[in-house]
Amino acid sequence: MATLTIRHLTTYRYLRPVAFGEHRMMLRPRDSDDQRVIEASIQIRPQPTSLHFVLDDFGNQVGIAHFSDAAQELCIDSTVCLEQSPPEVSARDLEEHATSFPFDYSAGESANLALCLERDGTDPEDEVGHWARQFLPPDQSIGTFDLLTRLSQAIHCTFRYRRREAKGVQQPIETLRLGHGSCRDFAMLMIDAARALGLAARFASGYLILSSDEHGSTHAWAQVYLPGPGWVDFDPTSGSVGKERLVTVAVAHDPQHTLPLHGTFVGSASDSLGMDVKVITRAS
């Protein structure tokens, strides 16, 4: 089991001192069978008047901070140490009835997965579904794991990665038409494609461990529910399957519920000078 330390430093800068509204933070990795937080700390400047943590409906830890002091800079410095043992997942881990596509979820699974099966209605002509079905052979017979791997690798190989500073996520149909997007855009395209095929999928956000030289990055990818292994990670940005190099912080049926940081300030839009983010990782 590997031990990993992640430091996530975010700094907001302003033209003049501003007051701060409520800030919500999702920075602590989830505890699960394959990762366990050993220690976590967070330093905030200016110091908040209150900081408390809650679990949301998806089991993600959310820090909520309130402030009284005005400042020209807001710095949020999170450090976590965790143990990680990502499992190797393959088609052999699926329950027999789910090894081949299509398959049906049980009544209980369908009820619990309802939000992760529902599409958002922004693709009335089902263009994403049509794109996804091109990976089905003429006789419609294909292994479920093989199909999802093809979808992930197709996004990786045929779409251009383009980092976007703008907030939010492109609609899957927009990413499909543009042929490019960020990691969060690719994740949502993968999710919508899976849902179009009747598979439950959700959005995951956290960290990508880039190398052993202390570099890391915030990242987003997709998870698909498969009877047997449960939620399986598919990263269409890299085309990879499984959690190698991935640390999960938050999951939800919609990406708006997984924002690492979200808050407000009192002032004009021109007061904001931008945001700097640095992620440093160290394995031991």
How big a fraction of the residues is strand?
A: 35-45%
Number of separate helices: 6
Tally the beta strands.
16
CATH architecture of the largest domain: Roll
Distance linking N and C termini? 10 Å
**Domain count:** 2
Radius of gyration over all CA atoms, rounded: 20 Å
- Shape call: globular
Structural class, judged by helices and strands?
A: alpha+beta
Broad CATH class of the largest domain: Alpha Beta
Poorly predicted ranges? none
Helix content: 10-25%
Helix and strand string, N-terminal first? EEEEEEHHHEHEHEHEEEEEEE
- Report the average pLDDT across residues: 94
Description of the molecule:
This protein has 284 residues and is an alpha+beta fold. It folds into two domains: 2-85 and 259-283, Immunoglobulin-like; 91-242, C8orf32 fold. Helices cover 19% and strands 43% of the residues. It contains six helices and 16 strands. It has helices at residues 107-112, 114-117, 127-133, 144-158, 172-178, 183-196, and strands at 2-25, 35-45, 50-55, 61-66, 71-84, 100-101, 142-143, 160-161, 180-181, 201-209, 216-226, 230-235, 240-241, 246-252, 261-266, 272-283. The strands form four sheets. Strands 1, 2, 3, 4, 5, 15 and 16 form a seven-stranded antiparallel beta sheet that branches. The chain has a five-stranded antiparallel beta sheet with strand order 13-12-11-10-14. Strands 6-7 form a two-stranded antiparallel ribbon. Helix 3 (127-133) packs across helix 6, helix 4 (144-158) runs antiparallel to helix 6 (183-196) and helix 5 packs across helix 6 (183-196). The longest helix has 15 residues, at 144-158. The radius of gyration is 20 Å and the shape is globular. The N and C termini lie close together (10 Å).
